[in-house]
């Protein structure tokens, strides 16, 4: 047997359980150096008292009482890692933010990652919940962390303030709000405001900035905040006379921006602490004039002069100035990987598109996943570039990124005041209700009125939800008797018809004189809005790979005929003899949005189909058409109705919907519904079609029955040649996947001269 002596025993145990050695064999430690700590043991942090720390909530999407928790320590804002985070930690932090308690907490940067070189101040925080400040909770220590910003913690506080709470985190001289105050009478009535005196808001109200040393770079930053891409020289003579007649309050007497900042508060500022009215010797209030982008230009001439760029676009956003960033390379649109994506790069995109600087640079496909190629990775802009293509970036490889990493953004956009002219009332939440619009009576009085529900649909609801800043449209409702909550009863607008792209209802078509068959208030228009929406898209390559012709005997088509899946001439056929020529293909429909796609109709109205052995929840879900080169329809699919289910899903996503056993129907985010080429009605009956060159078109959700974040990707087209016996299909693509030039070439395609497809 082998026996350990005393020192060997100590050495052995020391590497296993340090605290046991400390408790049982203290004499060992008297003779040796302290043991190496193998994993961090949380230690109390008392260097920074609670009175010297500041806290704030950041990130998106969030309400005022939730968000990524950030701590101001040693002159810099930083985040907290989610390792060992708990509800007790959240309680302490929420109290420091002025709320009574926490209702939850989040991990894995739910509200977005800390941007730039933001430090991670705390890690492995362990509070009991009763501490006065997080600074006295156990942790690794200030600035000591092994985390990345993918692990930034967030808190959800109860929306109730502590009695007598005063926000000590607010810097009295912090510049949080900036505005342009117009002084010309005509300018005060015109939107957007593009020129005026720069004013900043502090605890005492609005104040001016001294223009001594004011530079175009400062103006560039202010215009970016106001939603404008560029600044222009301003005529100061008028403003000089104006300021001499005004009593000014100068809060800031020096600003030194580089021109790349996204907010004036990020520029070096010198504040006035003494007599603020006398602190701009020889100067006057700073005045800025901005150049609006093409969407906000106030004259038709300017709109034509200021063209939108043709090589970059935003997709999937609920309103203008937000969305997934897509760039055109060659003739195909693709996305950008979010590695190193930040506010500087996002601001270059925003200004290029005619908006202001970036408000948020979003990662992780927060505006939905794109399709096709990923063109750029590790984009690094200085902020001075005129185009994203002028920034440094890496070409992508298949191993680098996936569409789950698509970059997106939110830009500063000009304030237009559209939300003041429409409101929704009576719903269970602020996201739903009966629509009321503000109108002017003949005597000049402003009053609220109703919109006739006839013809009201998803496109009109999209505009209302965008106008109110409530996200996407879930439903457009033609009856709102259950939301009768105000004394407004008069119909003041009818025949409203929108494309869905308008900024406000005033830009939509409508009757000059109200003409409403159902003029009672119960038949007025209503909306249900949502922060998220689904986005369906067809797998175009699969259509191309699976298309073929089948001559199917009539005796096998009784069920299909019952569902009206054959062309009209089938009724005159000599049943059960003969056959029908069918163009068959598979449809794989993906939901790449941020909400599940659910049928509009409730379960009570679903229709049982004995042939298929399940219920169908949508009458029209997809159109299948074969068209001539000039767009004339020569044959169409007649699929009576559809059942929606999750056939399969991306890795890590679970199926939620199935057609069998009267199950719930829909398509989950990250899943797809597959209609195989060999199932009934998955075809176009081309028995009467002559040989020639055609376009095969498939359109998902053609009537906009269910709201989506993007309808431009719902159509798929293919060129095809039919020689009377065989069919060749090629160039299958989603409707907005190609450049305008490539799409024109597709539509003007002269046809195949032979059966070889290059």
From TrEMBL:
Keywords: Copper, Cytoplasm, Disulfide bond, Glycoprotein, LTQ, Metal-binding, Nucleus, Oxidoreductase, Repeat, Secreted, Signal, TPQ. The keyword Cytoplasm applies. SMART domains: SR. Residues 55-158, 178-291, 312-412, 422-530 form the SRCR domain. Residues 1-30 form the signal peptide. It catalyses: L-lysyl-[protein] + O2 + H2O = (S)-2-amino-6-oxohexanoyl-[protein] + H2O2 + NH4(+); N(6)-acetyl-L-lysyl-[protein] + O2 + H2O = acetamide + (S)-2-amino-6-oxohexanoyl-[protein] + H2O2. It is found in: Cytoplasm; Nucleus; Secreted, Extracellular space. GO terms for biological process: collagen fibril organization. Gene3D superfamilies: SRCR-like domain. InterPro entries: LOX-like_protein (IPR050912), Lysyl_oxidase (IPR001695), Lysyl_oxidase_CS (IPR019828), SRCR (IPR001190), SRCR-like_dom_sf (IPR036772). One of its GO terms (molecular function) is protein-lysine 6-oxidase activity. Its main location: cytoplasm. Disulfide bonds join 127-137, 257-267, 337-401, 350-411, 381-391, 452-516, 498-508. The lysine tyrosylquinone cross-link (LTQ) is generated by condensation of the epsilon-amino group of a lysine with a topaquinone produced by oxidation of tyrosine. The keyword Signal applies. Its cofactor is Cu cation. Belongs to the lysyl oxidase family. Mediates the post-translational oxidative deamination of lysine residues on target proteins leading to the formation of deaminated lysine (allysine). This is Lysyl oxidase homolog. It comes from Cyprinus carpio (Common carp). The lineage of its organism: Eukaryota, Metazoa, Chordata, Craniata, Vertebrata. The gene is loxl3b.
């Amino acid at each position: 047997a082998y026996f350990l002596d005393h020192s060997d025993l100590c050495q052995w145990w020391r590497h296993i359980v340090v605290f046991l050695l400390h408790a049982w064999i203290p004499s060992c430690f008297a003779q040796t150096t302290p043991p190496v700590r193998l994993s961090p043991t949380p230690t109390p942090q008392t260097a920074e008292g609670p009175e010297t720390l500041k806290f704030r909530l950041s990130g998106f999407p969030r309400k005022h009482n939730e968000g990524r928790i950030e701590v101001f320590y040693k002159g810099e804002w930083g985040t907290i890692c989610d390792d060992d985070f708990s509800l007790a930690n959240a309680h302490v932090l929420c109290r420091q933010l002025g709320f009574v308690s926490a209702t939850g907490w989040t991990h894995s940067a739910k509200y977005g990652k800390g941007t730039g070189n933001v430090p991670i101040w705390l890690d492995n925080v362990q509070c009991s919940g009763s501490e006065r400040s997080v600074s006295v909770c156990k942790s690794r220590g200030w600035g000591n962390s092994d985390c990345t910003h993918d692990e930034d913690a967030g808190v959800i506080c109860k929306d109730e303030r502590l009695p007598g709470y005063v926000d000590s985190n607010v810097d009295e001289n912090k510049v949080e709000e900036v505005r342009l105050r117009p002084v010309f009478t005509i300018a005060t009535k015109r939107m957007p405001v593009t020129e005026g005196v720069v004013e900043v808001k502090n605890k005492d109200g609005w104040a001016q900035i001294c223009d001594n040393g004011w530079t175009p770079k400062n103006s560039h930053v202010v215009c970016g905040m106001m939603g404008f891409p560029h600044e222009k020289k301003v005529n100061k003579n008028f403003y000089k006379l104006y300021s001499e007649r005004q009593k000014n309050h100068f809060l800031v007497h020096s600003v030194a921006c580089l021109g790349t900042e996204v907010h004036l508060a990020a520029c070096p500022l010198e504040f006035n602490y003494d007599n603020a009215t006398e602190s701009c010797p020889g100067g006057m209030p700073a005045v800025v004039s901005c150049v609006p982008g093409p969407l906000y230009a106030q004259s038709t001439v300017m709109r034509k002069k200021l063209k939108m760029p043709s090589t970059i676009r935003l997709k999937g956003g609920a309103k203008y100035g937000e969305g997934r960033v897509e760039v055109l390379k060659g003739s195909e649109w693709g996305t950008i990987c979010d590695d190193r994506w930040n506010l500087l790069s996002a601001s270059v995109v925003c200004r290029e598109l005619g908006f202001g600087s970036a408000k948020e640079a979003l990662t992780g496909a927060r505006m939905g996943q794109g399709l096709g190629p990923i063109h750029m990775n590790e984009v690094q802009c200085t902020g001075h570039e005129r185009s994203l293509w002028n920034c440094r970036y890496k070409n992508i490889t298949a191993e680098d990124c996936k569409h789950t990493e698509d970059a997106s953004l939110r830009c500063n956009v000009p304030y237009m005041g559209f939300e003041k002219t429409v409101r929704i009332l009576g719903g269970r939440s602020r996201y739903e209700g009966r629509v009321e619009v503000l109108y002017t009576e003949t005597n000049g009085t402003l009053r609220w009125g109703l919109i006739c529900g006839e013809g009201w649909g998803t496109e009109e609801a999209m505009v209302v939800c965008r106008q109110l800043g409530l996200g996407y449209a879930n439903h457009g409702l033609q009856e709102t008797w259950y939301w009768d909550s105000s004394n407004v009863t008069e119909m003041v607008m009818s025949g409203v018809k929108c494309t869905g792209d308008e900024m406000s209802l005033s830009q939509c078509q409508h009757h000059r004189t109200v003409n409403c068959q159902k003029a009672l208030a119960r038949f007025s228009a209503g909306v249900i809005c949502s922060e998220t929406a689904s986005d369906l898209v067809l797998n175009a390559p699969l259509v191309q790979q699976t298309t073929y012709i089948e001559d199917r005997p009539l005796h096998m088509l009784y069920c299909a005929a019952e569902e009206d899946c054959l062309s009209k001439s089938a009724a005159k056929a000599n049943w059960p003899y003969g056959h029908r020529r069918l163009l068959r293909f598979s449809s794989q429909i993906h939901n790449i949005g941020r909400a599940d796609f659910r049928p509009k109709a409730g379960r009570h109205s679903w229709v049982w189909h004995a042939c298929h052995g399940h219920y169908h929840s949508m009458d029209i879900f997809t159109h299948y058409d074969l068209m001539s080169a000039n767009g004339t329809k020569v044959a169409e699919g007649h699929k009576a109705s559809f059942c929606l289910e999750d056939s399969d899903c991306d890795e890590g996503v679970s199926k939620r919907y199935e057609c069998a056993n009267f199950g719930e129907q829909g398509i989950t985010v990250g899943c797809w519904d597959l209609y195989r080429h060999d199932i009934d009605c998955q075809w176009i009956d081309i028995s009467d079609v002559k040989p020639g060159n055609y376009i095969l078109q498939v359109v998902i959700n053609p009537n906009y029955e269910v709201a989506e974040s993007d309808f431009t990707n719902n159509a798929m087209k293919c060129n095809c040649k039919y020689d009377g016996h065989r069919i060749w299909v090629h160039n299958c693509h989603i409707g907005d996947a190609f450049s305008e030039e490539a799409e024109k070439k597709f539509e003007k395609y002269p046809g195949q001269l032979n059966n070889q497809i290059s």
